[in-house]
Amino acid sequence: MKVMLGLSGGVDSSVAALRLLEAGHDVECLFMQNWEEDTRDGPCSADADRKDAVAVCAALGLRFHNRNFAAEYWDGVFEHFLAEYRAGRTPNPDVLCNREIKFRTFLDHARELGAEKIATGHYARVDQRDGQWRLLRAADVNKDQTYFLHALGQEQLAATLFPIGDLAKPDVRRMAEAAHLPTHAKKDSTGICFIGERDFRSFLAQYIPARPGRMQTPEGKDFGEHDGVMYYTLGQRSGLNIGGRRGASGEPWYVVGKDVQRNILYVAQGGENDWLQSHRVRAAELSWVAGAAPAHDFACTAKVRYRQTDQSCRVRIEGDSAQIVFEDAQRAVTPGQSIVFYDGEACLGGGVIEATDAAFGGLAPPLSTLHHA
């Protein structure tokens, strides 16, 4: 079977290539450039990654393809990313990047090049049961990436292989070293999907100019000025520049709310303060791996952020959205981020968090009502 591997120039996709060869597949590799580098932002990481990908292909004797999908990335991912920040939400570009670029644009292009399936170096697994494709957690729970893959459906999963989903990360490193792959000791990539590591605030400021405003406690006490509410996220501690205050407890300060219209950033002390707690969440833009929700009303576990432990909840479908009630209070549930649902090892799907019952979350009474209740 001819398989087109998305080769990023990292160790994970390098070992994915090795395992595909060992399984007897006819393997070719494609390196995706999805961001037009500007050297003012720092070193051109995409160029270094491309050279590493070429070196891996040379070491394994594989055909190398290079494609620029920057226009598709801008239209399908980055414009949405900016719109969400302008609205005061905190988007998750990795989810959209997977859906729109890695498992749509790349998949379509791979088929044009004659591939029957695509493969990536994601930590996830796929199987088929009762005629349905399932997205399963990776064997290495610390590296599992199903949270970012939850928007994939039956067509994508039927055409996808995850060759390292059954491996632990240390084993991936060992296999790469044993095969003398040039990426065996390469550091894992972090940062925004395809954009990489950089000072996030200065990067965002190139597209969304700073709009300073007031920083206040929920009770209305003025604490100075912020740089722009779009630069902050719920639960954030760093970058507030709030020193010791007379009458305060000495605990660290955290972002607990944003009022985009009035340009106010709300802060409170204590990482577990009540302003950050939610039991109820409303989610929209739902996607289901099986093509539909398992039921109109069902129990499952969910994550509201990557690496969070599973949280018990109940999901009720209401038209195009869902109401989720958690068994335990959840900290800093952030509009714009993804909520992802699980049944054991199977990822069911997920959606985008719209609102919560935290005081600033949109499901609770207005702040003025809370203050005067």
From TrEMBL:
Keywords: ATP-binding, Cytoplasm, Disulfide bond, Nucleotide-binding, RNA-binding, Transferase, tRNA processing, tRNA-binding. Its EC number is 2.8.1.13. Residues 92-94 are annotated as: Interaction with target base in tRNA. One of its GO terms (molecular function) is tRNA binding. Residues 202-269 form the tRNA-specific 2-thiouridylase MnmA-like central domain. Its main location: cytoplasm. Residues 143-145, 305-306 are annotated as: Interaction with tRNA. One of its GO terms (biological process) is tRNA wobble position uridine thiolation. GO terms for cellular component: cytoplasm. The keyword S-adenosyl-L-methionine does not apply. The active site is at C97 (nucleophile), C193 (cysteine persulfide intermediate). ATP binds at G6, L7, S8, G9, G10, V11, D12, S13, M32, G121. It holds the Pfam family tRNA_Me_trans_M. Catalyzes the 2-thiolation of uridine at the wobble position (U34) of tRNA, leading to the formation of s(2)U34. Belongs to the MnmA/TRMU family. This is tRNA-specific 2-thiouridylase MnmA. It comes from Oleiagrimonas soli. The lineage of its organism: Bacteria, Pseudomonadati, Pseudomonadota, Gammaproteobacteria, Lysobacterales. The gene is mnmA.
